Amino acid sequence: MAERQILTARLRRTVDLSERTKHLEFEVEEKPRFDFIAGQFISMKAIRLSDQREITRAYSIASPPRDDNTFDLCLNRVEEGFFSNHLCDLPVGGEVKFHGPHGYFLLKNPLRDSILIATGTGIAPMRGMLEWLFRDDARHAGRQLWLVFGSRFQRDIYYHDEFEQMAREHPNFHYIATLSRGGEEWKGLRGYVQEQVREIARGRTDMDAYICGLEKMVTANRTMLLEMGWDKKSVVFERFD
Fold first, then answer.
1. CA angle 138, 73, 117 (to 5 degrees)
2. Residues in the chain with pLDDT < 70?
3. CATH code for the part of the protein at 7-102
4. What are the tens digits of pLDDT across the range 178-195?
5. pLDDT for position 104
6. CA-CA distances (angstroms) from residue 164 to 63, 115, 121, 158, 187?
7. Hey, where are the domains in the chain?
8. Cα gap 2→186, rounded to integer Å
9. Res 154: pLDDT
10. In angstroms, rounded to a whole number, what is the distance separating the alpha carbons of residues 186 and 178?
11. What gap in Å lies between CA 173 and CA 72, rounded to an integer?
12. What does the alpha-carbon distance between residue 58 and residue 44 come to, in Å, rounded to a whole number?
């Protein structure tokens, strides 16, 4: 087996998405172009100073492949979590080692009508997939696409303005944000993502679903769709807990 190539990602820009969530933009030093498929992940490596252990963590890429050497991540700062704090505290110009891309959480070819289902930072690969699809009309022509994005609170609906703009520009894209604990100021949908997914999927088995988030949410939606008669090959998922 060929040895994995270790690459260097240099931080170009950081954006606070919420008090504990950041959008990070990197460039790959060793490559003029970083090739991957929307939905894949990378594995980052760093030495934890407290015990000199090498720690590796996987992060879904939150951007589509571009004609350059850049990629984006979206991650939460986890209390007592070494790697999330290491990345969130990385200064612009700081470097981190990684290998990849890896993974098979990919859009099917040919594309069918699809529901993309995400909670929290599970939105990362969905953002990459959707930006890739809408970059070229031929990639999504004739297909209806739904993004069902759920969270507890409004502050944790990341990239909300981007998805609303995407829906305005593409009539075949339907953006559905839902909160399980939204305050009075929230005027959108309420409840868990599977409640919205059930309505979209009702009476249909000729679609695909892509699910990314914590295990409980992934299992709830996958189980529901299979009980509605969907083929298990039509339900693609990625769990990150």
1. 60
2. 1-2, 183
3. 2.40.30.10
4. 988 776 777 778 888 999
5. 96
6. 17, 16, 18, 11, 14
7. 7-102, 114-239
8. 51
9. 83
10. 10
11. 22
12. 6
